[in-house]
Protein 1
Amino acid sequence: MKKKIAILGSTGSIGKSLLNILSKEEKKFEVILLTANKNYKLLLKQVKKFEVKNVIIKDLNSYKKFKKQNKNKRLNIYNNFSKLDLIFKKKIDYVMSAIVGLEGLEPTLKIIQYTKSIAIANKESIICGWNLIKNKLKKNKTDFIPVDSEHFSIWYALKNNNLSNVNKIILTASGGSLLNLDTKKIKNVSVKDVLNHPNWNMGKKITIDSSTLINKVFEIIEAKNIFDINLRKLSILIHPTSYIHSIIYFKDGMIKIIAHETTMEIPIINSIYKNNINKYEQNDVNISKLNNLNFSLVDKHKFPAVEILKYIPNKISLFETVLVSANDELVRLYLNKKIKYKDIIKLLIKIIKIKEFKKLNKIKPKNISQIINLDKYVRLKINSKSV
């Protein structure tokens, strides 16, 4: 029997990687639902190739264009996530949640009840709404697999291990596109240079986040939430080749170092097949990379974003939404050449120190509306230039 799956964000990098994997073993899978925001042309190709029966296109203009170009009368086309009960008559096997940004939180929460297993690649959802996701997972007895390479590697390493045996977890950071650039030259660096990541082919936003190291700050928060571990047990090491993804120190003196090539296909494949083996065509051991791991401590002068970690509470709060939303808006302003590169983290630290935001570190999110409304408020405040 074919595994029934759905992909939220099928036209993004994670969604495309997953469909590429599925194309090699089409007889084993049935794609029930694909979703996109604006890229209706690619979505149309994906629908035809995988004979998908349901699509959701969030952007209204793209939705109308898709409907106009679609020739398949048996295809159900929706403009939002309110009709999931019509799409899923019973639980499917697997969902990949890969919608970028906080826009992915609501669809993730809504679809959990319709799947046996969900892989989440949306970091904003895990950072800002993990308590809401966790409650939904528990209520619906849905399995969860993190897809971000660092969190997947921790999840993989902790199989059959009790978290109480863990002494420390290190996440590695490549250092991004500007790692070897002199600190004095970083201040007014061009967008083109920032977007030239040496290891990963990612979207603009996450590539910039990688260069400032705020992406790794986010991943520390994710790890704290997912594995329910104290922030003091989490730290970052610079590792330029991105071959090692996490290092776990156990209380008995043992250390697990988890490595894999710089491809998201490995976490994705493992999230689908779980304990099945021989699903990824492994290359020979990369001796060159193993002999040149080149770890180093984080230079706080070059990467001041890591100082933000001292403001993060151990328990999930609305403060994290402020952090995510403010960074998102500042990166947007940088891409639109409204602010300079050096201003991204400088302004971010200034914003999270504002009294009305700082006090949110003790307030737990009660519902998704609280998170979405705060997200809008933070963005409006930044654009009103009142920070």
Protein 2
Amino acid sequence: MSRILVLGGKGRLGAALARKWSERHDVHALARPEIDVADLAALQSLLEAAEFDVLVNGTGLTNVDRCETDRAEATTVNAHAPGVMAEAAAAKGARFIHISTDYVFDGTKASPYIETDAAHPLGHYGHTKLAGERAALEPSPRHLTVRVSWVFGPDKPSFADMIIDRALANDTVEAIADKTSCPTSAGDVADWLEPFLASDLPGGLYHACNTGACAWRDYGQHALDCALQAGAPLRARTVNPIPLAAMKNFSAPRPPHTAMDTKKLSTVTGLTPRPWQDALEEFVLQKFRHSSSGIRN
């Protein structure tokens, strides 16, 4: 049993990690207002006083448009705070697991990105996350940086929840059809990373997402198909495609194609991520009760 401290314990991924790992480990999760990682001095003091074998950073400023305007905060939270965490973990001989993003890539590669591909972020969000990755890995070879993409799970609404809610309330829904990546189950990520908690598996950079790539439109359509299967009274049953260029309210650049390859993760852990369609179906079916009213759990 490992002592695990999860920062960002109310986030979509952090909450899933804390919940699933608490079945076999001693897990303590912190989130605002208990901890504000933008206060680096307070963060350092808290980590120096805490006892843990594994520290997980599930925090981050993830609104990519806000990162363009609030650059100082984004730099502190996404780039500097992981360095403080990594140093604190290394000082205790603990392992640090830092969560990052596919937005470190520019999206120009036709095939899925592997860990050795050069990162070329397009916007400030990606630049700060890349800096955080490097700061996270520098203090110890046991530390991990784990890139995820399009995470969904029961602890915080995601794109899948949003598209289903819109289809329940509206006759038409739409989603971007020319931006692709890999949907990822938060619960699956917890399963894939658990082998690193109490073992000497190598640290470094890993990609962690469900297998298969799709566009936002395909992601949303499968969510609606699964909701219909669960008996949800959808008013809209088809997700209409729109181009990324039509999103005039986006101020930050978005990389168009950021699917990631997970062979390294599978080789090290012996675990093979399942297709995103299977993971999403399980999530949506659990979200709804099988009844004529389609009331959500």
